[in-house]
């Protein structure tokens, strides 16, 4: 089997052959109109200014933080919405993805060098359980997998990149695509691939968000000045499909919706799981295209930066802020290390 299709081509192929998930083109246009006012204000600097747990710096340590966090950036959803893992940091309880960031910052404050490859390459399961411990009775999911990934990833970073993700970034020669390929080639836990209708496809969600967070922590400057950042697609997680359905840009068949409302699990790689993820990526590509058209029509001359990364970030934050309103729309439950 040859190399997989790129995430964008994989998304197009899935959307063209999907049966249980549909991109609603009228919904795409409405979503773009709804997002247009906010889109004019999107800036790469918001990754820091809007999120207090993200690193302030743009140095090697900040890159080490991003690499560690994105190596563990998966599967935070709780079996029951009313009892979930939470990590208190600076007096605030954080849940989901933010619980991971809070636990990393808590460890660093306690003098545990959790972002150093020489540490996490040999960290023990007991130490990992303690570092990522929840302040509720519900632990963070997939703790054993997180431990295995820390050891595997740390060892590879030491062997191939001198223990520094900055070295990996510098090998990419300011190309987002080259950095993504370096990541999936060298780090097995990032190989988010599948088979669909006889073709090998790839969504590379964690590799793409790692490239995006690298671009963001470096504020699009120096080693992070990727001239092809616009070629990175949205990150196919379990939150974005939920908000795309909520906005009416994505539609599920009655059969699939019934399954999700019952809370049935989908296996990573299942046909319906691939359709949800692939159609979500394609849907965001189309919303991005429509936003660019609308800005063109408006003759918007302010230096607006519209790409799928900033659109994804905004939709993800929007989903977090509108959790209550979105309660009626189910997210798909898949337990895996890829998203
Ligand atoms: N598509 C997309 N998926 C994202 C993120 C983020 C956070 N990204 C950084 C970028 C902006 C902020 O500044 C953050 O620093 C996490 N996730 C995914 O969501 C899920 C966790 O959800 P919940 O259980 O509700 O916390 C899980 O699969 C996680 O991998 C994103 O931005 N886009």
TrEMBL record:
It holds the Pfam family Q_salvage. Its EC number is 3.2.2.-. GO terms for biological process: nucleoside salvage; tRNA modification. It comes from the Eukaryota. Keywords: Hydrolase. It catalyses: queuosine 5'-phosphate + H2O = queuine + D-ribose 5-phosphate. It is an enzyme of class 3 (hydrolase). GO terms for molecular function: hydrolase activity. The keyword Protein transport does not apply. The keyword rRNA processing does not apply. Catalyzes the hydrolysis of queuosine 5'-phosphate, releasing the nucleobase queuine (q). Is required for salvage of queuine from exogenous queuosine (Q) that is imported and then converted to queuosine 5'-phosphate intracellularly. Belongs to the QNG1 protein family. This is Queuosine 5'-phosphate N-glycosylase/hydrolase. It comes from Mus spicilegus.
């Amino acid at each position: 089997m040859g190399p997989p299709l790129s995430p964008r081509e994989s998304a197009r192929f899935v959307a063209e052959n999907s049966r249980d998930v549909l991109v609603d083109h009228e919904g795409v246009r409405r979503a773009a109109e709804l997002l247009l006012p906010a889109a004019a204000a999107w800036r790469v600097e918001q990754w820091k200014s809007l999120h207090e747990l993200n690193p302030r710096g743009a140095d090697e340590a900040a890159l080490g933080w991003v690499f560690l966090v994105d190596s563990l950036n998966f599967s935070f959803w709780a079996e029951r919405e009313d009892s979930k893992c939470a990590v208190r940091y600076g007096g605030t309880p954080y849940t989901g993805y933010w619980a991971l960031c809070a636990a990393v910052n808590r460890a660093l404050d306690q003098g545990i060098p959790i972002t150093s490859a020489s540490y996490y390459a040999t960290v023990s399961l007991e130490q990992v359980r303690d570092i990522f411990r929840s302040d509720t009775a519900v632990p963070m999911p997939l703790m054993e997998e997180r431990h295995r990934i820390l050891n595997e990833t740390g060892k590879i970073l030491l062997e191939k990149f001198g223990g520094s993700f900055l070295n990996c970034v510098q090998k990419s020669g300011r190309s987002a695509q080259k950095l993504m390929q370096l990541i999936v080639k060298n780090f097995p836990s990032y190989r988010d691939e599948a088979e669909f209708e006889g073709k090998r496809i790839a969504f590379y969600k964690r590799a793409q968000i790692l490239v995006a967070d690298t671009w963001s922590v470096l504020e699009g400057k120096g080693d992070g000045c990727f001239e092809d950042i616009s070629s990175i697609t949205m990150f196919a997680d379990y939150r974005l499909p939920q908000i795309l359905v909520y906005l009416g840009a994505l539609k599920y068949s009655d059969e699939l919706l019934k399954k999700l409302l019952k809370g049935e699990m989908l296996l990573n790689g299942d046909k319906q799981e691939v359709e949800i993820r692939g159609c979500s990526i394609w849907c965001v590509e189309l919303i991005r295209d429509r936003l660019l058209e609308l800005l063109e029509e408006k003759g918007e001359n302010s230096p607006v930066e519209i790409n799928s990364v900033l659109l994804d970030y905004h939709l993800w934050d929007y989903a977090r802020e509108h959790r209550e309103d979105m309660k009626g729309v189910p997210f798909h439950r898949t337990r895996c290390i890829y998203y």
